[in-house]
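Q: I'm writing a short explainer about Arginine decarboxylase for a general audience and would like to include a description of its predicted shape. Could you first generate the structure from this sequence?
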Amino acid sequence: MNNPEESKIWSVRQSADLYGIDEWSSGYFGVSPRGDVVVRASTPEGEANVSLMEIVDGLQQRGLQMPVLLRLENIVDSRISILNDSFAHAIESSGYRGQYRGAFPIKVNQQKHVIAEIARFGERYNHGLEAGSKAELMIALATITNRESVIICNGYKDAEFISLGLQARKLGFKCFFVLETLTELQFVIERSRALGIEPLIGVRLKLSTKVEGHWSADSGDRSLFGLNTNELVTVIDTLRDANLLHCFQLLHFHLGSQIPNIRSIRTGVLEACRYYIELVGEGAPLGYLDLGGGLAIDYDGTCSTNGHSRNYSVQEYCIDVVESIQESLDAHGIAHPTIVTESGRATVAHTAVLLFNILDVTHFEPTALPAELPANCHEMIANLWHTLNVICVANLQESYNDVIYYRDKIRDLFNSGDINLRHRVLGENIYWAGLQKIASLLPQVKRIPAELESLPQMLADIYYGNFSVFQSLPDSWAIGQVFPVMPIHRLNEEPTRQAIIADLTCDCDGKLQKFASPEGESTTLALHPIKHGEEYYIGVFLVGAYQETLGDLHNLFGDTNVASVRINPDSSIDFVHELHGDSISDVLTYVEYNPDALYEQFRQTAENAVRDGIITLADRQLMLAAYSEGLRGYTYFEK
Ligand SMILES: *Cc1c(COP(=O)(O)O)cnc(C)c1O
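A: Of course. Here's the predicted structure. Afterward I'll give you a sentence or two in plain language.
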């Protein structure tokens, strides 16, 4: 796009390619001919396209200000269907004689409305829930009504947890206790005897299969979770002695989340099958093989094993799993188990988009330089000036070294009183012009020297977004997770600025500066220049998994507004659920303040000021009204 003639014509296709939307969106999002991001929702009567800008308008008319977490119900429906239909298809095409049962892990998104949608759309597939704590089990028991669905209890379980799960058995729930430790087994046996209810028991294996990616520590010998081989044998012996071996019906393993490589999944399944065969030989009935989570999302659209992506599709995952189990067990004449997966990320990541507006921009424009240097310049400034004028593709690293060297010399001269402020400023300006020139030539070199890689980011604009990374995208801060980020409108215009995005917190980590692109990770994002008097909206996509509950109150930015929408076959939008985010009062109470008491303290301060003649009574009224309204307001930037 160096040719100015060419850059006048910018197509929405170019935007789609630039942001890689077709690569990462799994078909749920696209760009409309008008240049908006659209949701492509499957409905009972075919696909309906709705612009995110139309949804933003609708939200604003309903008083829901940015930032908003937008949930798209149609996508929840679609994700549940894809997972279940893909397993059904793999089972049918390979002649597997067993079923699939999904169990959504509640920890991945515990929000009531999300769990309710999963239960509703999952009903026809007997999709169940996975609980990792007592609180999550309570959600599961109150939500699941279908007795064919499984409830899988993972995590450390005390006697109370176990009693509750046993009672659920009495109600007909297929509620499995997956043993993480041997101590739990004692509790289970003891509570089961005390209540006279037989448990459904599963065991979590510690496999030796190691996987790549951020969650690699969940697998292998040093994994925190699961039983080793010795403990497994103890479980069998203990259950046999207690006459409960027939209750051992499920074998579980979980290699970690976001497993990038399908080959590790297959290796894990094959290893688990070896245990399955041995356990059946030992007299455990089994019947369920639970693969845990790990089904990954292509966050950056590269279809690779780089940790933000994966080298397989849901369909391929299902076929590999089904066929691996089938081949292993057929060789031993063992009946095919019901396959359980606890896919969380793959079920909900696509279903939510974080939307926010840009409040301000810092442009990085170097100050214009004089046509020639003033006569009385110090030699070091003249050297720097000369360096600037000879920068070319062939000497980028050398020029960079020189530019930094002379800049430092000029700073030393200023510190020792040898040059004045004006000359120091001139030196700094030449320095920035030098960096800009080097950065502008980088695209022309084949291999960019390591030191120069960060130059574009150093020179990028800063767009200030109305959101908090810590509240809404905690994984981006905590584990360097990359989410797709792009403007949701103006995609028929060329985005001519290179930027990073800063949030509202006063924290140097409160920013987005790693962006996915089909060409690989980038440290800046192309954005449009802001138009005066017009909002500019950014969407962060694939944020439906893990982000909400892990978010925190850094700088007391609270929960954002949330809206769930359903898109109808005629492309109309139902705003099915809206949730106003935390008010300032809300977040203050989280840190133990009493908003009424705060108001009263402020009232007294104002009252004293009236008494001392500093303000008038009318001032007092205005101030108290502002304080009181502030307490009720949104923690983010309001219009
Ligand atoms: C976290 C977790 C899951 C969910 O993993 P995803 O990668 O999100 O599918 C499933 N099972 C267990 C035991 C987990 O700890």
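A: For your explainer, you could say: The longest strand covers residues 352-362.
Q: Perfect, that's easy to follow.
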